[in-house]
């Protein structure tokens, strides 16, 4: 059955996956808290990423598709960095979105997220705007147009539509625009640029000159530490530096649950390589990262790799591909970004050396002001690399796979949500909601139940629970009918339930039940820990 987004949102609240931040005060838009199960799920997403990309990486052999073996190390940098970092990285000037305000409704919109349709009635032509997209956008604009022209539903045929839904960015003059929440025309302001970095003041007596920013990406911490990593380890090209951490983006219109938040976590790799081999590394990381999501359970038909067109590229990028997922809150056929894999060239290291660069044709050149002075000065430090093999000095090129931990977590939740039927203890089919999370990601790996609360079953179950707990996150439950206990764990996404029953007392075996296939089998209690450990990864 297709999932409605509000069913997942309700489950996340009910089972303690996600709560709105500061909920008892009415919440704060764009900020989310992970509950007891959510915190485990997101930690498992981060740990799977770190294990697969960094800790478990074998630097002695080239993984499939990699041009040669490479090394991986990690960093954990501060959230607030020297303000000059953001000037040289380009974020100070370019990390912006355009917004429009509505004078009538007092609402603010991201310019590129407002859509609309041109419609004419009795010689009057109006652009009817909506925040919705796809079929919902078409329905919404029709209802708004009927209201605006004072028509009833049965008169909808009198409206003459000129084309389908298009972005508000295609409309140059807002005089004939009916805003998404307005009753009169021309209430939307012209688009204005808005920097998305959160500003703060450092120090108790700080003034504007002590302004600093919450990092808008984790990547820059890696670039400014490039020399420190080279000097303190034995890494040599090619190598990657990984970082997981919070980043901030003062989104104009946060929406779609955690998909567009203002505070979120990022899992990034800056992969340094020789310029001539960078195209192969770019292809390697695109494919490697795409496969990672598939291996952890995202369906191939809901996941795609999309190359950016030239005008979509970020200011630093000379090639980017997005890994995108068909989130259920998007109109059919639309995909939302999960991760970007960018070829950043030598933009960042050179910017932190020389000063902020701009692209001129195929060249990166120093950006200068009207007097010919650098617009933003670099550190002046040498961030080049001496290649022992070729005896050459150069600035390495960078491939950056940049994933959102919260978006990945949301995608895994969307993919896992399912409603089906499972037999209860009497064999009667019962409706159940189940989260079919990959066992590596599931917050609770197994639940341990004594079938009944007597005959020594709880004692054995508690012993087994204690043994398992040393190896994985497990849950103990002895309350209520066993069928109900199974269903509770299905909804929490627990892949295995272990039941201690009458036969356990006779031969020491316990029943394991698989959440997805509902298959049940018996193993000896001595083998239980290894059996489950092998399955949950
Ligand atoms: N260093 C490059 C960089 O930061 P980005 O496209 O800004 O690139 C990378 O972000 C990833 O972070 C995205 O692919 C997405 O998964 C996640 N992300 C971006 N904005 C987000 C937001 N407002 N809320 C949640 N996740 C977001």
Structure description:
The chain has 537 residues and is an alpha+beta fold. It contains 14 helices and 29 strands. It has a seven-stranded mixed sheet. It has a five-stranded mixed sheet with strand order 26-25-27-28-29, with helices on both faces. A four-stranded mixed sheet has the order 8-6-7-9. Helix 2 crosses helix 10. The longest helix is centred in the first third of the chain and has 20 residues, at 36-55. The model has no long low-confidence stretch (mean pLDDT 94). Glycyl-adenosine-5'-phosphate is lined by residues 217, 219, 249, 251, 260-261, 264, 266, 268, 337-340, 400, 402-404, 406-407.
Question: What labels describe this entry?
Answer:
single chain; 537 residues; 7-stranded mixed β-sheet; 5-stranded mixed β-sheet; globular; binds glycyl-adenosine-5'-phosphate
* Lateral strand order in the biggest sheet: 3-13-14-22-17-16-15
**Poorly predicted runs:** none
Q: What portion of residues is helical?
A: 25-40%
SS element count, helices: 14
Approximately what portion of the residues adopt beta-strand conformation? 25-35%
- Structural class from helices and strands? alpha+beta
Q: Span from first to last CA? A: 29 Å
Major sheet characteristics = 7 strands, mixed
General form: globular
Bound molecules: glycyl-adenosine-5'-phosphate
Number of strands: 29
């Amino acid at each position: 059955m297709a999932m409605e987004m509000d069913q997942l949102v309700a489950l996340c609240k009910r089972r303690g996956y996600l709560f709105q931040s500061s909920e008892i005060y009415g919440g704060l838009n764009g900020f989310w808290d992970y509950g007891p199960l959510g915190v485990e799920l997101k930690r498992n997403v981060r740990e799977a990423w770190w294990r697969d990309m960094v800790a478990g990486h074998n630097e002695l052999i080239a993984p499939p598709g990699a041009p040669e073996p490479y090394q991986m190390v990690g960093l954990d940098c501060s959230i607030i960095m020297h303000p000059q970092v953001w000037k040289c990285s380009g974020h100070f000037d370019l990390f912006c979105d355009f917004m429009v305000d509505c004078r009538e409704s007092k609402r603010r919109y991201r310019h590129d997220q407002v859509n609309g349709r041109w419609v004419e009635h009795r010689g009057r032509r109006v652009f009817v705007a909506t925040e919705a997209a796809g079929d919902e956008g078409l329905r919404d604009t029709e209802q708004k147009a009927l209201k605006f022209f004072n028509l009833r539903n049965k008169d909808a045929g009198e409206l003459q539509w000129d084309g389908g839904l298009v972005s508000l960015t295609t409309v140059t003059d807002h005089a004939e625009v009916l805003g998404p929440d307005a009753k009169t025309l021309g209430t939307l302001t012209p688009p204005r640029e808005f920097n998305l970095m959160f500003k703060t003041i450092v120090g108790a007596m700080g003034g504007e000159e002590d302004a600093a920013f919450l990092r808008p990406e984790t990547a820059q911490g890696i670039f400014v530490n490039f020399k420190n990593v080279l000097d303190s380890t034995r890494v040599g090209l090619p190598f990657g530096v990984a970082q997981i951490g919070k980043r901030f983006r003062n989104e104009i219109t946060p929406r779609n649950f955690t998909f567009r938040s203002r505070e979120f976590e990022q899992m990034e790799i800056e992969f340094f390589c020789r310029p001539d081999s960078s195209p192969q590394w770019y292809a390697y990381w695109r494919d490697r990262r795409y496969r990672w999501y598939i291996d952890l359970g995202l369906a191939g038909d809901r996941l795609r790799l999309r190359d950016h067109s030239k005008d979509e590229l970020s200011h630093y990028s000379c090639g980017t591909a997005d890994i995108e997922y068909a989130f259920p809150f998007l109109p059919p056929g639309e995909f939302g970004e999960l991760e970007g894999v960018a070829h950043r060239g030598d933009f960042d290291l050179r910017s932190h050396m020389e000063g902020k660069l701009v692209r001129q044709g195929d060249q990166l050149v120093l950006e200068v002001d009207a007097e010919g002075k650098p617009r933003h000065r670099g550190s002046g430090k040498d961030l080049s690399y001496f290649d022992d093999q070729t005896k050459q000095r150069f600035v390495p090129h960078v491939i950056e796979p940049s994933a959102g931990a919260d978006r990945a977590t949301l995608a895994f939740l969307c993919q896992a949500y399912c409603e089906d039927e499972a037999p209860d203890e009497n064999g009667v089919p019962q409706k159940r909601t189940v989260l079919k999370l990959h066992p590596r990601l599931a917050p609770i790996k197994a639940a341990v139940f004594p079938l009944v609360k007597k005959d020594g079953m709880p004692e054995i179950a508690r012993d087994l629970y204690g043994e398992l707990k040393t190896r994985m996150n497990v849950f103990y439950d002895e309350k209520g009918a066993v069928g109900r206990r199974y269903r509770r764990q299905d909804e929490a996404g627990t892949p295995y339930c272990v039941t201690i029953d009458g036969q356990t007392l006779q031969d020491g075996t316990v029943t394991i039940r698989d959440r997805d296939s509902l298959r049940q089998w018996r193993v000896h209690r001595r083998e239980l820990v290894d059996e489950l450990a092998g399955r949950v990864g």
